[in-house]
Amino acid sequence: MKLFIDTAHLEEIREANAWGILDGVTTNPTHVSKTGRPAKELYEEICRTVDGPVSLETIAVDAEGIVEEARRLAAMADNVVVKVPIMREGLKAVKRLAAEGVKTNVTVTFSPLQALLAAKCGATYVSPFVGRLDAVGQVGMDVVRQIRTIYGNYGFSTQIIVAAVRHPIHVLEAALAGADVCTMFFDVMKQLYEHPLTDVAVKLFLEDWKRVPQDKLT
Ligand code: E4P
Fold first, then answer.
1. Regarding beta strands 54-57 and 80-85, do their DSSP bridges make them parallel or antiparallel, or are they unpaired?
2. Rounded to 5°, angle at Cα 169 from 168 and 175
3. What is the reported pTM?
4. Fewest CB within a 10 Å sphere: which of 60, 63, 182, 207?
């Protein structure tokens, strides 16, 4: 499963990239607004920072406007994926963009049937928002599992990005459900490394090493 970081903060992207496990970036208008930076220069810098796909979201609400915006975004760098909200106009645009070879990420998806429509329109990725579903009492990961089954049944190549992830258990469940990608905040990504037993073991080994007669090994 690929790991994307869900942020527009360059410092977080650079640090996660340096860890060697980062496969891509997802941004959204909320993330961009938190940086206080103009979108174009920020997007160009993010795309230069990572090799993998970078999702940049469209703001237009009509198909024509989305297609025009998507073309401008896609022209910015080779690794741009255009993020399009799942609405009728959005899917009309995705269909046209797929025909032009523009990669898309169909976002704010909350049901398996929406994901079926996204795949039929040729979306490269679909992003079910699991944390937001959990928050309203629906098991978000059930939607991911249903999408996996539907895509398997019909051989759709659209990749599933598990999004709106709140904690490491979401990442684990995404991997067990066979999601292609999981996108998460920097803090959740950091938590993937952590285990109290690892800390205890490393501390003990370092203590024990002090009792080993020292030569030129280390
Ligand atoms: C994913 O691509 C979205 O940017 C993100 O996960 C949005 O979800 P949230 O705002 O509920 O965290």
1. parallel
2. 95
3. 0.96
4. 207
- Give the Cα separation of 139 and 177 in Å (integer): 13
Strand 181-184, strand 80-85: pairing: unpaired
Give distance in angstroms: CA of 74 to centre of ligand 1: 21
- For 112-137, the DSSP string reads HHHHHHHHHTT-SEEEEBHHHHHHTT
Residue keyed to tokens 């970081």: 5
Average pLDDT over residues 80-104: 98
Q: Compute the Cα dihedral for 4, 136, 141, 107 and give only its sign.
A: negative
Nearest CA to ligand 1 atom 11: 164
Please check whether residue 17 is in contact with residue 52, taking contact to mean a CB–CB distance below 8 angstroms.
Answer: no
Q: Within a 10 A sphere around the Cβ of 33, how many other Cβ atoms? A: 11
Q: Which residues pair with residue 107 across a beta bridge?
A: 85
**Atom of ligand 1 minimally distant from the CA of 163:** 6
Pocket (CB within 6 angstroms of ligand 1): 6, 26, 28, 107, 127, 129, 131-132, 163-164, 183
Ligand 1 centre to CA of 204 (Å) is 39
Residues marked active site are found at: 83
**17-47, pLDDT tens digit by residue?**
999 999 999 999 999 999 999 999 999 999 9
Determine the distance separating the centroid of ligand 1 and the alpha carbon of 129, expressed in angstroms: 7
> Any residues with CB less than 8 A from the CB of 77 and at least 6 apart, and which?
43, 44, 47, 48, 54
